[in-house]
């Protein structure tokens, strides 16, 4: 397994298991299988609704806690400073853990405390720098208390991360963003390299089985691109292995979701693949700035969230 070194000198396994859309009744088995074949990094979130079952799998594994890397994410309805600690403690309880390795602000989007999934713009609270810093301050307290070892962001632009760097006392350790050959995140990679932040890519395979309302008509597919097929043939491996190997060859972390034992194994094999320069150049040419998950579900009528202020043009 390849490891990436964080600004604290801790090491994070580059390949993790994503658990978004991993159904109840399947996710526990998938986590147990993943741990038994060598995964050491599990990416979770309260909003995925499956942390309790993941916790059961973590309890029954023989892998020592210090060899595991567990991430979870603060949901958008708990970003008020008075709600942050309780949200983290609840994730810890569900996951049966004493501490998390990493806790991320899930989105730069705030929703009312009693609402899980906004139905209208009245459930949304506009994003402000002031409130982001209050959330970050509460997360810093959780680090000091030992509830979590690292904190970071998910779906934040470099502009928003810069605000945390400029005003916080604890630096973000990880920036988790959608990343794959159609969205190569070169600006984020450079920014994070310059600031000692690790980039983790979600939806590395194109997140094909996400909810139907989030799938756009005619969207491109990663798993049948002719250039990726040709590279997979050259390495005598699967397209998924190439996509994940590409991410790790760029020294980024990657969290493919699977609940299928065969695909869990295929994805793990990617941690041993290093693509050569020629193949990296071919894949570099596929960048299209294309988001499969464009955050448009936050932009219902009357919402203060727009593509422009969510992604800051990045
Ligand atoms: P499954 O859980 O049945 O394996 P992403 O990580 O980009 O969000 O993509 C996850 C989707 O890709 C899931 O639907 C998952 O289905 C599927 N998937 C995971 N690993 C592979 C693989 N090696 N080959 C093809 N599809 C995969």
UniProtKB/TrEMBL annotation:
Positions in coiled-coil regions: none
Signal sequence, renumbered to the chain: none
NADP-dependent oxidoreductase domain residues: 15-286
InterPro entries per the UniProt record, alphabetical: AKR, Aldo/ket_reductase_CS, NAD(P)_OxRdtase_dom_sf, NADP_OxRdtase_dom
One family name in Pfam for this protein: Aldo_ket_red
Protein name per UniProt: Aldehyde reductase
């Amino acid at each position: 397994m390849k490891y990436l070194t964080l600004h604290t000198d801790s090491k994070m396994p580059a390949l993790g298991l994503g658990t978004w859309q991993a159904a109840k009744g399947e996710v526990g088995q998938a986590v147990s299988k993943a741990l038994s074949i060598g995964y050491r990094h599990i990416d979770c979130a309260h909003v995925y609704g499956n942390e309790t079952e993941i916790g059961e799998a973590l309890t029954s594994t023989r892998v020592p806690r210090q060899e595991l890397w567990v991430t979870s994410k603060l949901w958008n309805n708990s970003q008020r400073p008075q709600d942050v600690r309780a949200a983290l403690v609840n994730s810890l309880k569900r996951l049966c853990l004493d501490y998390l390795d990493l806790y991320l602000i899930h989105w730069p989007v705030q929703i009312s405390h009693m609402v899980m999934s906004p139905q209208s713009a009245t459930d949304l609270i506009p994003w402000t720098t002031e409130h982001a810093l209050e959330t970050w301050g509460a997360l810093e307290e959780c680090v000091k208390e030992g509830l979590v070892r690292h904190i970071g962001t998910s779906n934040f632009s470099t502009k928003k991360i810069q605000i945390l760097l400029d005003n916080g006392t604890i630096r973000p350790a990880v920036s988790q963003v959608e990343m794959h050959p159609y969205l190569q995140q070169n600006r984020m990679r450079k920014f994070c390299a310059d600031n000692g932040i690790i980039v983790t890519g979600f939806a590395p395979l194109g997140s094909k089985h996400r909810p139907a309302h989030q799938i756009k008509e005619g969207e491109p597919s990663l798993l049948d691109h002719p250039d990726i097929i040709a590279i997979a043939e050259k390495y005598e491996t699967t397209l998924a292995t190439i996509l994940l190997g590409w991410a790790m060859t760029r020294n980024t972390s990657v969290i493919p979701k699977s609940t299928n034992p065969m695909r869990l194994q295929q994805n793990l094999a990617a941690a041993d693949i290093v693509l050569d320069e020629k193949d990296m150049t071919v894949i570099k040419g596929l960048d299209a700035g294309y988001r499969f998950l464009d955050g448009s579900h936050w932009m219902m009528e009357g919402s203060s969230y727009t593509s422009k202020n969510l992604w800051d043009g990045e």
